[in-house]
């Protein structure tokens, strides 16, 4: 993950982390491009998570991903300052059939 702090339209976004998450699937590893937007209220509030497909990928809309690539997971919905962190979110994304989010 690579941090970016360029100006956001919304001042509540302080930093973006973008990169790929290696996801094992049927004996192979796939690097899924993602972005996390960290709010100025972090760690009290969960970051916003997105799948960022490359030109040859398409987002598959599901209960976990909308048409803009925004990710909705129970881990984010149940975010707790005491029990949640970025590493935990990345691990949950790896385990949540991330490959089904892209075509």
Would you write up a description of this structure?
- The protein has 103 residues and is of the alpha+beta class.
- It has one domain: Roll (Ubiquitin Conjugating Enzyme), CATH 3.10.110.
- The protein contains two helices and five strands.
- The chain has helices spanning 74-77, 86-95; strands spanning 2-4, 13-25, 28-39, 48-51, 70-71.
- It has a five-stranded antiparallel β-sheet with strand order 1-2-3-4-5.
- β1 (2-4) and β2 form a beta hairpin.
- The longest helix has 10 residues, at 86-95.
- It starts with a strand and ends in an 8-residue tail after the last helix.
Give me the secondary-structure category. Answer: alpha+beta
Overall pLDDT, averaged?
81
Tell me the β content. 25-35%
The tally of structural domains comes to 1
Note poorly predicted spans: none
What is the CATH top level name?
Alpha Beta
Q: Helix segment count? A: 2
Proportion of helical residues: 10-25%
- Over the alpha carbons, how many angstroms does the gyration radius reach? 13 Å
Distance between the termini: 22 Å
- SSE run: EEEEEHH
Major sheet: 5 strands, antiparallel
**Corresponding CATH architecture:** Roll
> Number of DSSP strands?
5
> CATH superfamily name?
Ubiquitin Conjugating Enzyme
Shape descriptor reads globular
CATH topology: Ubiquitin Conjugating Enzyme
Strand order of the largest sheet: 1-2-3-4-5
């Amino acid at each position: 993950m690579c941090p970016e702090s360029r100006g956001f339209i919304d001042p509540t976004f302080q930093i973006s982390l973008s990169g790929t998450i290696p996801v094992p699937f049927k004996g192979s590893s796939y690097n899924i491009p993602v972005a996390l937007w960290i709010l100025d209220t972090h760690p009290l509030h969960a970051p916003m998570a997105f799948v960022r497909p490359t030109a040859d990928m398409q987002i598959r809309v599901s209960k976990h991903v909308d048409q803009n690539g925004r990710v909705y997971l129970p881990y984010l919905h149940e975010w707790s300052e005491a029990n949640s962190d970025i590493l935990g979110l990345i691990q949950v994304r790896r385990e949540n059939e991330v490959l089904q989010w892209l075509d």
